[in-house]
């Protein structure tokens, strides 16, 4: 452990300079995934791939995170309208559809009059992400299939924040619903509202997404396909609803997997069981210090052994959970990273840093195993992390970075190729 800390210390100036340099282009090779892609997409629930973290899975996770970063950058380039261009991190993909979410929350008109320059913050319908498809024959051969990616950003507008604070569970639509049945699948009211609400000017996110995925599945009929839904924060929550909807409503849907970062809880235990029964695979990347992953509601432990113990004890706890409108359950498998393992970030980093997507990708890139230090051959650039989280980076490194790259560190658009490149 001491040797690893020494290796990652400020004394290693050459390595630090490489991680901060815009001219260095150290890239990890892209392995052929043809025989392994189903396993990487959760066919065995990522058994044996998470701790220690499989090298190919690490590269895939960073790649999905960069698709989400592209959605953030595109939105902030034109928050009032629709981005003209989405700068995808992988040139093998093309955007086929822009996605919009509509809030059911209504704010008084005087808010727009008070702050007209921030009108985009109160827009009823906002751009939240995109659908992209791989159209490079060489990359399709390398991956073993043609991949459809759905990338969703996190909370950005005032109305989206309002929806986040509607934590009561609501029943999902079913063919023959029984409102009195406490075992029905339920999801957070605000997330469901953003996903299912439409307007006069735009269909709901649910309808537009299902229509586009159905079109692409028909277009590429006969090919090996996969659907990867990825998102951060609010986008991670909506990703689960989208995956459930696609598996339910898209005819002949290919395998659907969700790769989420810093996602909150979304539904009850029955919702988790519903996703599992449809074959939807979910991998949640969670930072131990990220409070967003611990909300909303009361966490209902869905460990089957503990459930059995509860039943043996009269099932009182289970009855309370099933009838509690705040009883949430996490979904799928979990990759847990820890801010304290990074040699660069302060162990007491603030709440925003613990939830920051770039911080997540930094931690994933350096993760080896839960009982190992940050990997010494991590390749992701530190430039963007310094730009966005300078106050949360250890002072030794911020000072060293200024001396090594004075005048270049604050170049926001220049980031080294990540392990996915």
TrEMBL record:
The keyword ATP-binding does not apply. Residues 149-298 form the Fungal lipase-type domain. Keywords: Chloroplast, Hydrolase, Lipid degradation, Lipid metabolism, Plastid, Transit peptide. It is found in: Plastid, Chloroplast. It comes from the Eukaryota. Pfam families: Lipase_3. The keyword Chloroplast applies. InterPro entries: AB_hydrolase_fold, Fungal_lipase-type. Belongs to the AB hydrolase superfamily. Lipase family. This is Fungal lipase-type domain-containing protein.
